[in-house]
Amino acid sequence: MLGLLWLLDGALQFQPFMLTTGFADQIIAPTADGQPAFVAGPVHWAADLSVAAPALWDVLFALTQLLLGAALLVPRTARLALVASVGWALSVWWLGEGLGGLAGGHALMLTGAPGAVLPPVCGSRRRRLARPGR
Q1: What percent of the chain has pLDDT over 90?
Q2: H/E element, 43
Q3: Separation of alpha carbons 78 and 53, rounded Å
Q4: What Å distances lie between residue 115 and 31, 52, 77, 82, 129, CA to CA?
Q5: Whole-number mean pLDDT of the chain?
Q6: What count of other Cβ atoms lies within 10 Å of the Cβ of residue 15?
Q7: Per the UniProt record, which residue ranges are transmembrane (predicted)?
Q8: Residue 17 in this model has a pLDDT that exceeds 60
Q9: Residue 74 three-state SS
Q10: Which residue has the higher pLDDT, 40 or 123?
Q11: Element (H, E) at 6
Q12: How far is CA 127 from CA 9, 67, 111, 121, 123, in A?
């Protein structure tokens, strides 16, 4: 299931809007608003980096997600992909979602907190714990 979510996320990352500076300016950068410096600084850095070459970064993001999704669906690579998936999801949660607004004290589930990428992280942890003999 997690592999399918990453495949869907990677496919959605190829939307035309995501290939423009609007992705960084209107999606990533605003997540730093009202956040403490340890969240806002890295979020602004990620947004500035993405603005410099939006199509390149977006394609890299999308391909990473597609690769994670495909690797999770192949039994031979699933364990390594699961570890990589958690790392990728946490970096997206911090740099792309500003920790879901939790550090700024203005997070509401109604507005999307704690972030869209956190459930796959929790799901991957559950999957790992559910494996027999582990």
Answers
A1: 54
A2: helix 37-52
A3: 31
A4: 10, 25, 27, 19, 23
A5: 83
A6: 12
A7: 55-73, 80-96, 102-122
A8: yes
A9: coil
A10: 40
A11: helix 2-12
A12: 19, 19, 27, 10, 6
